[in-house]
Amino acid sequence: MNCVDSYSANSMNPPFLLIRSFDLILNAGDLIFLDLKSPQPEEEVQRQLALFEEKSKEMGSYGIPHLFVPGNHDPSFTYAHQTPEILTELDKTTNLHNYCYQIQPHLWIVGFGGSVPVTLADGTVRKNSSYPFTADMKDEVLRLFSLIPKGDSVILLTHCPPATIGSSFMDQDKKTNEVFFYGSQSLYNQVTSLMQEYDLFLFVHGHVHHEPGCSWFHRTGRSCCIVNPGSVMGGHYAMVRIRKIGEVWKVIDVHHSFSY
């Protein structure tokens, strides 16, 4: 499968799209750059909304299911689905926010969008830096997983990263020299707890566009590969190969494209 973080990608033509052997394209959000907390000129809002429709159609035109979760810069209507639910079929482009989808028997993908407020190194919380959350998450991902049989294998796709991992903060911002922490402590707690009951083996997130990379959570008898593909606009993407070994799914390899 291929994983991307669009981040206002005015041009979405990375080389991986020339290869049609992928099963899924996972998009961690920010297809456009709307500022949902501050007013923008109406002309710019309409331009961004048109770009969202254009890019949604483009990413769904490659003959490979394109699944995305909304980022904090995507249209507010992409968060309309408020009740955790099992999705029964995919479109060419599917908004996976608050949905679970069974890819194969005992193999699921779970999606949840949005970001939490940024925290600075001195503990200052920037409450206007996120959407739709004004504080940390609660138990949203736990409620989604409750729809899935315990013990099944799961891929988690979110916009926001979990706290503590290397791709959840930016050190340091090129303009301000500040350290920004983007991760959710609640999401970290939820994921590490869920690993005790589910085979959560792959976690793809976005949001921290300039810190692509790969890390791991390890819990007793289980491991979860965490991938931040980085932004397509910056020339980043990740190709992840998974395989069923015995009764469990595992990440076999992760190929990252970096432009830095």
Automatic annotation (TrEMBL):
<dbReference type="InterPro" id="IPR029052">
    <property type="entry name" value="Metallo-depent_PP-like"/>
</dbReference>
<dbReference type="InterPro" id="IPR004843">
    <property type="entry name" value="Calcineurin-like_PHP"/>
</dbReference>
<protein>
    <submittedName>
        <fullName>Ser/thr protein phosphatase family protein</fullName>
    </submittedName>
</protein>
<feature type="domain" description="Calcineurin-like phosphoesterase">
    <location>
        <begin position="21"/>
        <end position="210"/>
    </location>
</feature>
<dbReference type="GO" id="GO:0016787">
    <property type="term" value="F:hydrolase activity"/>
</dbReference>
<dbReference type="Pfam" id="PF00149">
    <property type="entry name" value="Metallophos"/>
</dbReference>
